[in-house]
Amino acid sequence: MYTYTKKQGRIEVICGCMFSGKSEELINRLRKAKIAKQKIQVFNSSLDKRYACNAIASHNKTKLESEHVNTASEILKLVKPSTTVVAVDEGNFFDKTLVDVCETLAQKGKRVIVSGVDLDYTGKPFEAMALLMAKAEFVTKNLAVCTKCGSPASRTQRIAKAKSRILVGAQGVYEARCRKCFKPGK
């Protein structure tokens, strides 16, 4: 399913709620690409400084070096011609421009892998992630474990008091919840 050919680009999306292993899955795919001697470049939003300023990181502290960008359009300027795999972590932090960037890279024959939260704390889709899922050749939806009942969790419950749509955080700010235990916008 994830073999690479130099003849055709593609888009892969890894989505799900917080604490579902999205970044870990992304890092695993990139490690395999490195073993296959593919040239990779990794990007993350400059908003995400939770674990490292020059790396993507999973909640269990697995890290991989990355470049931070303020906008998705910066990625196009930074991707080197020799790069075969372009990865973007926290795709939900970018606007819809990310979709055009990924499409452009795939058209150039790049394997593009984007991970990110698909639904915000109110249960509404992040536009860039929803559009990418529709355009991607491969979509992986990860589930977490509901912190209330132990069922499979597909939602992110914000437990910190804040009104902005994007609030960078981890444990103590968000919890994984199943459909039944999720309280939109609370």
Automatic annotation (TrEMBL):
Gene3D superfamilies (alphabetical): 3.30.60.20, P-loop containing nucleotide triphosphate hydrolases (3.40.50.300)
Enzyme Commission number, as recorded: 2.7.1.21
Chain segments annotated as transmembrane: none
UniProt-annotated binding residues for ATP: G16, C17, M18, F19, S20, G21, K22, S23, D89, E90, G91, N92
Subcellular location: Cytoplasm
Binding site for substrate: I166, L167, V168, G169, Y174
GO biological process: DNA biosynthetic process; thymidine metabolic process
Binding residue positions for Zn(2+): C146, C149, C178, C181
Keywords: ATP-binding, Cytoplasm, DNA synthesis, Kinase, Metal-binding, Nucleotide-binding, Transferase, Zinc
GO molecular function terms attached to this record: ATP binding; thymidine kinase activity; zinc ion binding
InterPro entries registered for this protein in UniProt: P-loop_NTPase (IPR027417), Thymidine_kinase (IPR001267)
Record field: catalytic activity: thymidine + ATP = dTMP + ADP + H(+)
Single GO cellular component term: cytosol
Active-site residues, Swiss-Prot/TrEMBL: E90
NCBIfam families on file: PRK04296.1-1
Subunit note: Homotetramer.
Family, per entry: Belongs to the thymidine kinase family.
Name by which UniProt lists this protein: Thymidine kinase
Organism: Elusimicrobium minutum (strain Pei191)
